[in-house]
Specification:
Order of helices and strands: HHHHHHHHHHHEEEHHHHH
Oligomer: single chain
Radius of gyration: 28 Å
Number of strands: 3
Shape: globular
Number of domains: 2
Number of helices: 16
Largest sheet: 3 strands, antiparallel
């Protein structure tokens, strides 16, 4: 009995996929050029063989995005998440995109040329980040070449989310270092503000959190400082803002909210780890720290806060309905403002 709804959903998806594919013009032209463009980055994409010994920029991105970094380094797992989100949003937006007038537009070659120039520069100076930007710039240009400028404008969101495929690495240190200190200070204040209730008194030394009894000592690394959850939260805020709201200021509010939410989420996770280490043992605390479920704690405040703020902004933008009066046979309104009292109505019996 449960197979019928699932089969119906799959059949509907297949039907809509075939219909969208049929309505898309110049697809052979686009995908042949796309294959040639990606082949360039497959065989001549990466020139930094000292770090990852592969000429493929695509493989370089996959290795970097799927690797688990040490505690002192920054993860770039969003590199693999971003393409899935973009593809899903393209499918969600397919009806709007297919309504656009789609014709060949040769000015799209300008973007392809710009992407090629950027890749040459990135390849020469051994900067794969520049080549990644070049690759997606060229793909965007091919879309404009095959389907025209109006399709290009309509697909700017979600296409610009491919920017999260660029690894941040050490470029994010100007964010991660202040985040690490901020998270460490907040955890120290919270732990020392309630020692009589929870007995979590700790000492902070820079970005280190030390137990006075010597039970544990933790270093607030870049990932624990919030850069990983910050990137994911910003992605969620952008997706939520652009899919729900059309007003620019509402989108900006949601994106700006990602910074305090990332800090709050990582403070919550560190407090839970310290509680486990203090009340049970250091090994148990490290188990909580490395647990997959507890690693999702930083995203709990972000998801609920974004949903709550989104509903709040929706209520503020919703128009308020004013009750309209309906005339009676005598011409007086029956709802809304009451009819003015006559002289006879104003008489009060003694």
């Amino acid at each position: 009995m449960d197979e019928q709804p699932t089969t119906g959903i799959l059949d509907e998806f297949q039907t809509e996929l075939v219909d969208a594919w049929r309505r898309l013009p110049n697809k052979g032209f686009f995908f042949i050029l796309l294959g040639i463009w990606l082949a360039l980055f497959q065989f001549l994409g990466n020139s930094t063989f000292g770090y990852l010994d592969t000429p493929s920029l695509l493989k370089w991105m996959y290795i970097l995005g799927s690797s688990r970094s040490g505690e002192g380094e920054t993860d770039d797992n969003q590199m693999l998440i971003a393409p899935l989100i973009v593809l899903g949003l393209f499918w969600w937006k397919r009806k709007e995109l297919l309504k656009q007038p789609m014709t060949l537009s040769w000015p799209g070659l300008l973007l392809v040329g710009l992407g090629l120039l950027l890749h040459i520069v990135g390849y020469r100076v051994q900067q794969p980040r520049i080549s990644i930007i070049a690759m997606f710039t060229g793909i965007y240009g091919l879309m404009g070449l095959a389907w025209g400028p109006k399709f290009l404008r309509a697909s700017l969101f979600p296409f610009f989310l491919f920017i999260f495929c660029v690894p941040f690495g050490t470029l994010s240190e100007f964010i991660t270092v202040p985040l690490r200190h901020l998270v460490a200070r907040i955890v120290e204040v919270m732990a020392n503000a309630m020692p009589h209730f929870m007995h979590l008194g700790i000492i902070r030394q820079g970005t280190q959190l030390v137990d006075p009894d010597g039970h544990f000592q933790y270093e607030v690394a870049a990932a624990c400082g919030g850069i990983r959850s910050l990137i994911v939260t910003i992605m969620l805020a952008i997706v939520f803002g652009f899919t729900v709201f059309r007003s620019a200021w509402k989108r900006i509010v949601l994106i700006a909210l990602a910074f305090p939410l990332a800090v709050a989420g990582n403070v919550l996770r560190l407090v839970v780890v310290i509680m486990a280490s203090k009340w049970v043992s250091k090994d148990f605390g490290m188990g909580v720290h490395n647990n997959t479920i507890t690693s999702l704690l930083p995203y709990v405040p972000a998801v609920f806060a974004l949903l709550w703020l989104g509903s709040l902004l929706e209520k503020k933008s919703a128009p308020t309905e004013v009750p309209q009066s309906t005339p009676t046979p005598t011409g007086q309104p029956t709802s809304g403002a009451s009819a003015p009292a006559t002289a006879q109505d104003q008489k009060v019996p003694a």
